[in-house]
Design goal:
The complex is a heterodimer of chains A (421) and B (341).
Chain A: H1 2-31, E1 42-46, H2 54-64, E2 70-74, H3 79-91, E3 99-103, H4 107-112, H5 132-136, E4 139-140, E5 143-144, E6 147-152, E7 155-159, H6 170-175, H7 177-183, E8 186-189, H8 196-208, H9 226-241, H10 253-261, E9 265-270, H11 273-280, E10 290-293, E11 307-313, H12 320-331, H13 333-343, H14 356-361, H15 365-373, H16 384-399, H17 405-419
Parallel strand pairs in A: 1-2, 1-3, 8-9
Antiparallel strand pairs in A: 3-11, 4-5, 6-11, 7-9, 7-10
Chain B: H1 2-13, H2 24-59, E1 66-68, E2 73-75, H3 83-89, E3 92-94, E4 100-102, H4 112-142, H5 148-155, H6 157-160, H7 163-173, H8 179-184, H9 194-221, H10 226-234, H11 239-250, H12 252-267, H13 271-277, H14 290-298, H15 302-340
Antiparallel strand pairs in B: 1-2, 3-4
Helix pairs in contact in B: 2-15, 3-15, 4-9, 4-12, 7-13, 9-12, 9-13, 12-15, 14-15
Classes of the chains: A alpha/beta (421), B mainly alpha (341).
């Protein structure tokens, strides 16, 4: 008797579980059409506002828009926790999160789950003045799902006291390592610890060599092409020859910065955030002795991996018109310049980079513009977590010499294929 | 274990009825009242313990949603049977054609047995080290000397620090240009190579939890009456002999409790290896434990993660059951020996 009851309950739960998930996508498709002209107070959600750049902007907005005030909800500063928080709120169809900031690598996943309002029709925003790579990072399946907010591109930091001019190509960079050897310091380091940063660095090497991880369709893996393998091989060779020092397989951004900052590296690949830190700090051994260049490529600038965030509208939001205006407010030149000056966050508007006043203040921004113009997004796929895991695990093993490049490339290829099915 | 210990005496305490007609009645009434008293707790336990376990098991029977190529949106895949379980246990993945293939390197599916092995390795090694060191610390702390209270308090500091903070602390110690390499004059990649990474985790875990084990054992040591030692000394037993034949058998229950606690803890260890090494080392997975694998899988698909967490739960449950069974017998044996002595 008891067993029968238990079995009945179990079966009931099973049916409940199957039916409710299907409803999720349908409900989202319905919600896409609702509240497009809804106006009223909204909530804006993003990770920790470390450099206090969002609060002043919101205050400004609130002063100008009575009745459509924005409440700021600050999440943790850990990307994984931000992701989980958003998933939980979207999953429960909570209209409380009107505008949410999404990392470029989450856009495809959230869009595929139907949680983001497509920015089409009355919701469309003008993307003509934006750097194309940033728009690509907010697009899934040909539809724009979020407004680019801040961007990021890699820079090659090099020592001006040891070199006259930066290397333009990867071969030139490796050739200059003799200088490092004579000085008794390491040559080049990026971020090769096993974490998201390794996917970023490996993608850069692969894209720069003319290869890619995924085809533009977001499904077909392209890791076994000669170009993609050559890209991975360039990192492996540099690590084996010592051009990339041994300890850099434990480096994330900060460890690389510390090594360069204490004068132990000739070249470093890092984000722009390191620039002012290394120039300003009293403890920096390289203050005034370094400059930045675009990442070296095959013949010209290499391809940085695109970083940054976009702002998206929750499909269940009740005040989408206000939310849309708020996205546009972030895209205004004044807001974008404020992102740069207050928070060292790379703007997504091309014209901000050409402002002579800002260039004088931030001498690295023309280089940063080149970097973002040549930037490539990481694979745009709803299965991004599985893809980045496959890249990280295999690139790490290959760099350390525990797997051949051929094997690593083949494993990434089949791991991505297995992830999508 | 507690349930086991408590239930035995209660049955003994129940007075033997005088008449042959009466027995079931008071007993039944009593057990009914007892049931009523226990019921709220049972319901609460059912909600907080059973519900998540059962719902995880139910979830594990469904396939993870996949993309409908026509719309680019996720769609449900329906009932999966036990395929999520075979995915882990036999490391079967599906490729794009839908055929079942062996999980390619770098996928989480290919890591199941390795993480199982890593988890068991951490459990055996850290628990052994912690109990050995804990026993040593406890015997030192059990002696009377000036500042004993201060020592006991200060030894607790390591245990009082949150694990995440401990892990970050050791992360800096084991950095390439960190304290460990500077002190030893080495250039070991503590978080990058296979065995250094594993031992970094073992060292950090031992540093953190040895004090806890020491205090548990100390509590056991203080139950041993001083007269026993005096008598043994009178009989001419040496220090080692006293330790072997008096201390060790008498504190056996305390040690076993410490072992049980620690084994269950390490079997589900997550934060320490995750923060210290990112589950990395060696080819990138040398310190990936079962719990790290579960969390990583959760980012890729909830249903297959539920299957993995169910497998992990059953495994830990089995280990706990065996330990409690074995220890239950041991504890009673020891108590009986104590009584006889």
């Amino acid at each position: 008797m008891k067993r029968v009851a238990a079995a009945a309950v179990a079966v009931g739960v099973l049916f409940a579980a199957t039916s409710c998930a299907d409803q999720g996508i349908d409900a989202a498709a319905q919600a896409e059409k609702l509240n497009l002209d809804g106006r009223g107070p909204i909530t804006y959600v993003q990770g920790k506002d470390n450099s206090n750049v969002v609060r002043p902007l919101i205050d400004e907005w609130n002063a100008a828009h009575p009745g459509e005030e924005v409440t700021f909800k600050e999440q943790s500063d850990q990307a994984d926790q931000q992701h989980e928080d958003l998933v939980q709120h979207f999953q429960s169809r909570d209209p409380g999160y009107d505008v949410a900031v999404v990392d470029v690598v989450w856009t495809a996943e959230f869009a595929a789950r139907g949680w983001l309002q497509p920015l089409e029709g009355p919701m469309a925003i003008d993307t003509s003045g934006l750097l194309p790579a940033t728009v690509a990072g907010a697009t899934y399946g040909g539809v724009l799902y979020a407004a680019p907010q801040t961007s990021d591109g890699a820079l090659l930091y090099y020592r001006t006291d040891l070199l006259d001019h930066p290397p333009a190509t990867w071969d030139e960079l490796v050739g200059a390592c003799g200088t490092a050897q004579q000085t008794g310091i390491g040559c080049y380091a990026g971020q090769y610890a096993k974490y998201e940063g390794l996917t970023v660095n490996a993608s850069e090497a692969i894209n720069t060599a003319g290869g890619s991880i995924l085809a533009p369709d977001g499904v077909t893996p392209t890791m076994t092409t000669p170009e993609a393998k050559a890209g991975l091989q360039s990192l492996v060779d540099a690590y084996r020859s010592g051009a990339i020092p041994r300890e850099s397989v434990t480096f994330q951004e900060e460890q690389a910065r510390q090594a360069f900052q204490s004068g132990d590296l000739l070249f470093m690949r890092n984000w722009p955030y390191a620039y002012s830190l290394m120039n300003g700090q009293g403890s920096s051994a390289v203050s005034g002795k370094f400059a930045v260049a675009p990442l070296p490529g095959k013949n010209g600038p290499g391809h940085s991996t695109l970083g940054g965030h976009s702002a998206a509208i929750n499909v269940y939001s009740e005040h989408k018109a206000t939310a849309s205006d708020f996205l546009k407010f972030f895209l205004e030149k004044k807001s974008q310049a404020f992102f740069l000056s207050q928070g060292s966050l790379a703007p997504v508007r091309a014209d901000v980079y050409d402002d002579p006043e800002l260039i004088e203040q931030y001498p690295y921004i023309p280089t940063l513009k080149t970097s973002i113009e040549n930037a490539v997004t990481r694979p745009v796929t709803p299965f991004y977590p599985a893809v980045t895991r496959a890249v990280q695990n295999n690139a790490y093993a290959a760099i350390k010499g525990e797997k051949t490049v051929d094997q690593a490339a083949a494993d990434i290829q089949s791991a991505i294929a297995a992830a999508g099915s | 274990m507690t349930v086991h210990e408590l239930s035995e005496p209660t049955t003994e305490v129940v007075p033997q009825p005088d008449s042959s007609e009466a027995p079931p009645r008071p007993r039944k009434g009593r057990s009914k009242a007892a049931m009523l008293l226990v019921l709220p707790t049972m319901i609460l336990l059912g909600i907080v313990v059973l519900y998540p376990v059962v719902s995880a098991m139910v979830m594990s029977l469904f396939k993870d949603p996949t993309i409908d190529p026509a719309t680019g949106k996720f769609v449900d895949q329906g009932f999966a049977g036990l395929s999520n379980y075979t995915h882990w246990l036999f490391q079967r993945c599906t490729d794009t054609t839908g055929a079942s293939v062996s999980c390619p390197g770098g996928t989480l599916g290919s890591l199941f047995w390795q993480s199982m092995w890593v988890t068991v390795f951490f459990t055996v090694v850290t628990v052994t080290i912690e109990v050995a060191l804990g026993l040593w610390f406890a015997t030192i702390m059990n002696r009377a000397f000036r500042g004993r209270a201060l020592l006991r308090t200060s030894i607790l500091v390591a245990w009082a620090i949150p694990t995440a903070v401990t892990a970050k602390l050791w992360y800096f110690v084991f950095a390439y240009d960190g304290i460990a390499n500077k002190l030893l004059g080495t250039d070991i990649l503590w978080t990058g190579d296979t065995w250094p990474a594993r031992f970094a985790v073992v060292i950090a875990d031992a540093w953190k939890t040895t004090p806890f084990v020491a205090l548990l054992i100390l509590a056991g040591l203080q139950m041993v009456p001083a007269e026993v030692y005096e008598a043994a000394r009178m009989d001419g037993a040496g220090a080692w002999q006293r330790f072997r034949s008096i201390t060790l058998p008498l504190i056996k229950p305390a040690i076993l409790v410490a072992v049980l606690f620690r084994v269950l803890d390490v079997l589900r260890i997550y934060d320490l290896p995750a923060i210290l090494t990112g589950g990395g080392g060696g080819d990138g997975t040398a310190t990936t434990t079962l719990s790290i694998l579960v969390i990583d899988q959760m980012r890729q698909g909830f249903n297959s993660a539920s299957a993995l967490s169910t497998i992990t739960f059953l495994f830990i449950f089995a280990v706990a059951y065996v330990l409690v069974k074995v220890m239950g017998v041991n504890v009673i044996d020891t108590q009986e020996q104590q009584r006889k002595a």
